[in-house]
Design the sequence.
């Protein structure tokens, strides 16, 4: 019986942090109307990498959503090549929409 509860607890930990289908859909809608689309497309590179490529890169990174939130809010340089820089988007996108968009991006694999 103890092994059963340990298994349940392990499964819960694996699922913790994963967005629900509704959260992912909300993120998809938020992305479709966001400033993000100015530089990022779903499947192809633009001024920035595709959302699919970003999702794949961060899919297995512990704390990915927090790392990505900082990169979006602070800006970043050199993550996708020496000439690619992302300016800070703080104030250009709400925290709620950013969270939803990142849930969506992290669902892409």
Sequence:
């Amino acid at each position: 019986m103890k092994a059963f509860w340990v298994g349940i607890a392990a499964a819960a930990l694996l699922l913790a942090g994963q967005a629900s289908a509704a959260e992912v859909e909300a993120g998809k809608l938020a992305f479709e109307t966001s400033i993000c689309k100015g530089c990022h497309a779903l499947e192809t590179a633009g001024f920035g990498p595709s959302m699919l490529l970003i999702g794949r890169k961060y899919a297995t990174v512990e704390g990915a959503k927090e790392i990505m939130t900082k990169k979006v809010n602070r800006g970043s340089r050199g993550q996708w090549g020496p000439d690619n820089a992302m300016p800070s988007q703080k104030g250009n996108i709400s925290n709620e929409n950013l969270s939803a968009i990142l849930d969506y991006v992290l669902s892409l694999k």
Observations:
- The helical segments are 2-15, 21-32, 51-58, 64-74, 95-107.
- The CA atoms of residues 10 and 55 lie 24 Å apart.
